[in-house]
Amino acid sequence: MLVALGEAVPVLGLNSRLALICIYLGGALGANTFLMYGFFNTIPSELDESAKIDGATHAQIFWRIIMPLVTPALAVVGLLGFLAAFNDFILARIVLISQDNWTLAVGMYAWVSNDLNANWGLFAAGAVIAAIPVLVLFLSLQRYIVGGLTAGAVKG
Q: Does residue 155 belong to any structural domain of this protein?
């Protein structure tokens, strides 16, 4: 499919990072939509109705009432989406052909894929360094996740 699409739009063909990003977005869309739908359903409609009675516009209701309540779900969906794309090997190996476009997982696999020249020390060091962005993202989103669990809103 990417070969045929690449003939019409070369930016979205094989060996394109943009094509890989589109595949990741399409793959994560179903699960993330399901998670967000379930979380939005936990917000009582009374909050929306009381804000309308108080004279709030639709934009004010969404940005000032609903969004602060769903921030934990957005943090979880963002974290899961990042982890899925960051750690994926199979799709990245299939779509990105040239070595210049390889993702971190595919590049690290190249260090140990040859049985005779497997550089396990470099692979282990790369795996530890590769964990740093995931750790930083989790620590930065942790306050939203924990804040959502301990918030005293009128949910439920």
A: no
**Contact (CB, 8 A) for 15 and 101:** yes
Reported as a single tens digit per residue, the pLDDT across 29-77 is 888 999 899 889 988 999 999 999 999 999 999 999 999 889 988 998 9
Higher pLDDT, 148 or 55: 55
- pLDDT tens-digit profile of 93-123? 999 999 999 999 999 999 999 888 889 999 9
**pLDDT value for 64:** 94
The CA distance from 98 to 12, in Å, is 15
- The residue written with tokens 């998670």 in the block is 35
Residue 54's CATH number:
1.10.3720.10
CB distance 56 to 48 below 8 Å: no
| Dist. CA 156–CA 152, nearest whole Å | 11
What is the sign of the dihedral through the CA atoms of 36, 69, 154 and 60?
A: negative
| Residue 84, C-beta contacts closer than 8 angstroms, at least 6 positions apart | 24, 27, 28
How many domains does the chain fold into? 1
The domain in which residue 133 lies consists of 2-150
Structure tokens that stand for 51 in this block: 């804000």
